[in-house]
Amino acid sequence: MNIPKVSIIIPAYNSMAYLPTTLESVLSQTFTNFEVLIIDDGSSDNIQEWFLRIVDPRVKLISQENQGVSVARNTGIAHARGEYLAFLDGDDSWQPTKLEKQIDCFEANPKVGVVHTWMAVVDLENRPTGRIIASTGEGDIWERIIQGNMVACSSVMVRRYCFEEVGVFDETLLVAEDWDLWIRIAARYPFAVLA
User: Fold this and answer.
1) How many C-beta atoms surround the C-beta of residue 152 within 10 A?
2) Where are the alpha helices (DSSP H) in the chain?
3) pTM for the whole thing?
4) What's the gap between Cα 122 and its chain centre?
5) Most exposed: 45, 87, 145, 175, by fewest CB within 10 Å?
6) How far apart are CA 77 and CA 55, in angstroms?
7) Contact at 8 Å (CB) between 102 and 87?
8) CB atoms closer than 10 angstroms to residue 162
9) Cβ atoms of 71 and 58 closer than 8 Å
C-alpha cells in the first residue's frame, strides 16, 4: 500500500451545505499524493449517504459521536499516515496549487515546522469578496503569536513530528485550540507563509 505524502484532515459537523465544495477543492489539487480523512463528528445531515457516492479511494470517512472540533482533528491525526498533515474545515476550500506550493516550501526549508497561507474571503455562494487575510507570521514567530493568532487553521500544513514533540489539539479548550497548538509549535520551530 502506498503511503500518502500528505494527510488532509477535515472535521465535519452538519457541514453538508459546504462539504461537497470543500472536498472538490481538495480533489482538484495539482499535488495528488494525499489521503483525505473526513471526520464525521456526530452529524445528522446525511453525510454517510453522501460519502457512499464518493468513488475516490483516497477519501475516507471516520465517524464518531459529537465531541467537538479538537477531538475530531485529533481523531484525524491519530489515523493520518502522511509525512505532512493539512487541516481544512468543512466550510472552507483551497486553491488548486496550495498543497504543491506548501510541499515545495517544506522541501526548500527543512527546519520549518508549519507552512500556512494567506486566505481569500468568499461569500455564501463561494464568490470572492475581494477581502484577503494576509499573514506576516514567518520565521521565529513565538513572541508575536503569543500576543495574537495570525495563522488560520484551514491554511496550515504541519510536519508530522511536530505533533510527536508538542502534542495535539487541547481537547479541553472550547476556543483558540488551534492558536494554543501554534504557540507550542512556534516555541520549537520556525513558520513559513505563502501569499
Assistant:
1) 18
2) 19-27, 47-51, 69-79, 98-108, 142-145, 160-166, 177-186
3) 0.94
4) 18
5) 175
6) 23
7) no
8) 19
9) no
Dihedral-angle region of residue 130 (phi above 0 means left; psi in -120 to 50 means alpha; beta otherwise):
left
161-172 pLDDT, tens digit per residue, is 999 999 999 999
CA distance 115 to 121: 19
- The span from the CA of 190 to the CA of 142, in Å, is 8
CA distances from 148 to 144, 164, 190 (A): 7, 24, 16
Task: For residue 49, give the DSSP letter.
Answer: H
Question: In which band, very low, low, confident or very high, does the pLDDT at 185 lie, cut at 50, 70 and 90?
Answer: very high
User: What cell does 39 get?
Assistant: 471526520
Query: Are 113 and 188 contacting, i.e. CB atoms less than 8 angstroms apart?
Result: yes
Q: pLDDT, tens digit, for every residue of 19-43?
A: 999 999 999 999 999 999 999 999 9
Beta carbons of 190 and 139 less than 8 angstroms apart: yes
